[in-house]
Every structure is written in C-alpha cells, then in structure tokens.
Amino acid sequence: MRQLPKEHATGVTIVVKSLSKVYPFIKGWELSEGWDNYKTTLYIELIINIEEASKFYNKPPTGFKNKKGSTLSMFLGMTDIFNNKSEWDDEFEFFYGEKQKMINKLNNVYHMIPEDYIRFREGAYNKEKPIKLDIDNYMSDN
What pairing do the DSSP bridges indicate for beta strands 41-48 and 132-140? Predict the structure, then answer.
C-alpha cells in the first residue's frame, strides 16, 4: 500500500480537527485499508471516544466489542435490536444522517484549505477536481 503524501495527510488532519470542534468525541483519523484503490475518493477511519460520544448524543453505549463499526449506531443507542426493531431502525437512520452531515462538513472544509494540502483526482478524468473525503468506519480509541 502506498503512503499518502505528507502534505495531503496534513490536509486531512486539518479538516478532521475542524470536524472535532463540532463533534468533540472525534480524536483523530487513519487511512482505510485499500484507500489507494480509489482515484476520486479518500476513505478514512474516524477515531472516536465512545464515552464522549455517548454523552454528546445522550445515548448509552451498546457494548459493541469490535473496535471498528461503519455507523455510530453500532456503538451507541439501542442494545436490544430483536425486540425493538422499529426503534433500532430509527436509531440507525439517525446515525446514518449524522454520518452524512460529518462527510459534508469534512468536504466543505477540505475545499477551503490551501491547495498544497488537497489531493486531486488521479487519471485523465477531472484531474483538476479535489478528491472527496468519505468516512469508511469509526474506530474506538479505547
């Protein structure tokens, strides 16, 4: 796997720090596995503190044992999905919407940082356009 150039990593760090001002439970980021397979999107893992996220959303931790999850609903909210499916669906939809808000904020800030820190698309198609940042997973910091 290739390394992300230092200036591009700095750009992602800048936008993730900006996002953590809105969502203080976000503690950092890592590249997603296979990130270099994509030419128009940079997939990242957001490192989060579950206890702080629980307080932020006023939702209990689920006790999910894996360190990675594709949505915050894996870490927070409903713990009894089988007896409360409709409530669990609502929780999932809520956290899916939160993820989309985060992705939008990441990309809005990414387009405002200096060009030296922005990764542009590779290949012949739309080379002048910045890549899109996307959240692949959340990772627990504990």
Answer: parallel
